[in-house]
Structures are given as structure tokens and as C-alpha cells.
Specification:
Helix content: over 70%
Radius of gyration: 12 Å
Distance between the termini: 37 Å
Oligomer: single chain
Structural class: mainly alpha
Order of helices and strands: HHH
Number of helices: 3
Number of strands: 0
């Protein structure tokens, strides 16, 4: 993993967390919390989709997977909170 790949991963994850926070509405985690959730969610989304045999091509595909993973992670966090 190169430094450039890591930076792109963090940027995509942060944007995905921000978008997922807007999409999910409700009680958010704040800007910094949404970014952290997005980074964790982008990793989660990548792993889940890879296990299903679905791969993302390009930045747009990675961003979509990251947003879906962040939404999944937000859902899991809200489920555990209750």
C-alpha cells in the first residue's frame, strides 16, 4: 500500500461518511464522527462486497461502496446503541 493510496482511501472514506451522515439523517455523530464512521465504513464496505464477489472499478465505484459501507456501519452503531 503506497502513501498515495492511503491518502485517497482516507479522503474517499471521509467524504463517504459525510454523505452517509446526510443520507441517514437522525442523530448524527458530528462532522468528525461522520468522517471516522466513513473511513471505517469504507473498509467494511470493501470487505463485504469483496466477500460477495463484487468489485468496484474507479474512484466512483469505490466511493459508492464506501457510502454503502458507511451506511451499514451507521445502522450497526444505531442498532447497538438501542
Amino acid at each position: 500500500m503506497t502513501l498515495t493510496y492511503l491518502i485517497v482511501f482516507l479522503i474517499i472514506g471521509g467524504l463517504a461518511g459525510w454523505c452517509a451522515g446526510i443520507i441517514s439523517k437522525g442523530s448524527g455523530f458530528g462532522v468528525a464522527g461522520n468522517i471516522i464512521v466513513g473511513i471505517i465504513g469504507s473498509f467494511l464496505g470493501g470487505v463485504c462486497f469483496r466477500l460477495l464477489g463484487i468489485v468496484a472499478f474507479g474512484i466512483i465505484g469505490q466511493f459508492i461502496f464506501a457510502v454503502l459501507g458507511a451506511l451499514l456501519f451507521i445502522w450497526l452503531l444505531r442498532f447497538v446503541r438501542k
